[in-house]
Amino acid sequence: MAEPTIEDYYLEERSFPPPPEFAETALVRDRSLYDQAEKDYQAFWADQAAALTWTKPWDTVLEWDLPFAKWFVGGQLNVSYNCLDRHVEAGRGDRVAYHWEGEPGDSRTLTYADLLDQVQRFANVLKGLGVTKGDTVAIYMPMVPELPVAMLACARIGAAHSVVFGGFSSDALRGRINDASCKVLVTADGGWRRGAPVGLKGNADEAIAGAPTIEHVVVVRRIESEPPMTEGRDHWWHELMQGADPDCPAEPMDSEQLLYLLYTSGTTAKPKGIMHTTGGYLTQVAFTHKYVFDLHAETDIYWCAADIGWVTGHSYIVYGPLANGATSVMYEGTPDFPDKDRWWSIIERYGVTILYCAPTAIRTFMKWGTQYPEAHDLGSLRVLGSVGEPINPEAWIWYHENIGGGHCPVVDTWWQTETGAIMISPLPGVTATKPGSATFPLPGISAEVVDDAGTKVTKGGGYLTLTRPWPSMLRGIYGDPERYKETYWSRFPDRYFAGDGAKVDDEGYLWLLGRVDDVMNVSGHRVSTTEVESALVDHATVAEAAVVGAKDETTGQAIIAFVTLRTGNEPSDAHGQVLRAHVATRIGPIARPKTIIFTDDLPKTRSGKIMRRLLRDVAEGRDLGDTTTLADAGVVDEIKRRAATAPTEE
Ligand code: WT7
User: To bridge 102 with a disulfide, which of 106, 114, 168, 347 should be the other Cys (CB 3.0-4.6 Å)?
Assistant: First the structure.
């Protein structure tokens, strides 16, 4: 038998069927959506698209010229109409779209009618600055309501937006503006972070100094500062809005019109401008937002705690929730200001029923301890979501018990910037979940695990692939169709290769194993970093772990583990031995880490993913590569110090 592509060690046997009282009122209670999609996936997606308002019906559901897809060809619709006008026209203008909370504690409530008014005015502002259909507008903002307003205003007039996360540097902003030749930049004087105002306009100015296509800059005043304003180029948002015409009809757009670019920050190479278009994208984000979170729009208070600068925010703070007429919470700042219970106080205050966040946040809360959530009434919650990284089973259990009170289904949602919307996830009213598994592809989606040769794996580890087009798939990399083909469609014929390892268990559940670049080779065994990390986090003292392979003369690679303990536990050599033994019993002696380095923090990207590349550099004693995407550069120095003295087991 061939060597397994990635080995399958970690066994997680706990299973959580949907609670009966949840299933009783769930939108999906049986397998009919799956059955319908299995019969004819295009007809299934056409049914979902029909839930939107189209000004012209489509002629063809799908044109598939691998790897280029067009969905709902010939159809026309407007995204901002679907997110705003149709709710207002249906008499729901008074429904709250966003309960917004600033970090200092200020708040704003925007109804659908308010949002529509703001969006129409800002759409006219953009027109007044010369933005027309087909242009691209750069947006570089903190988490303030003007951010979704700017995005929707672009969509209203057929301009694409390119949102650049507000934590990025001026270099990153400049590169993205230039790649898409943006004419207008929408930004702010700054935002609030950990109790202090952080300026943004200075970065924007630095970026624009090397971005000749920018003609106008619109600046939201958020921190009451007086940044330098360049005459004729820079304009205050509030001044332009005062004089803006309140009526701006939504332009019908072709289904395949570009809605936005979003750059994925590959850790080394030039960022890729991922292209998302109109009809298929909105169809899938609306469908998934409604069914994965079991949204009852009249009663739910939904909170996605991501930043809009990432795809999670685009799809699940802006477009999905608004298309569904949902009421959302939007929060500007950090989870530990003024104290480590900020999230739980928000949930209690607004009565949040659905929470969607990342494993990195959950593991941070684990580290801080249960006293913070315990100080608040979280009884309103009924669904919990996770996205961004594999969620370790223990973190899943912690979330389920300490945040969900043991009664909320946890939906672990696998997807990517490139997929645009959730692809693999439970449906909370029907799927029995297993902690750490994203379970099954959603109706209409087809995913398979394959081995090195591209042969389907029915049990065990391999590579995650998608076998047919889906409505919200990326339409390419802006300006680089060859790179699009090469990156996603060349490794396996006729399949989209996501770059992730995965395994299938004997019940067909999918378990994501992290990026394949992170797989280690120990004495010829291909061990997933995710599995060893989960075995470490399984120990009661561990909050977070990052595992990498470092070159080793005897075993090829040796397993090096960076471990953050939960508050109240002290690192020691003896404790390192306990953890090694724990991994050995949990997965097997092969996975026993050679070195354990205790550290208070791990290097993460600004979206919260552990940067294993940097940890490999540390483990192999190399000079550090590019650290520009790191959220907190100081962390690495600390880890280097710890690594230099960590005991190693031979
Ligand atoms: C990569 C995509 C999807 C929006 C945020 C991230 C990892 C994402 C999961 C999950 C295991 C996950 C994958 C994927 N990932 N969700 N539920 N379980 N891994 O978007 O920055 O484009 O990252 O995040 O490795 O390929 P992104």
Answer: 106
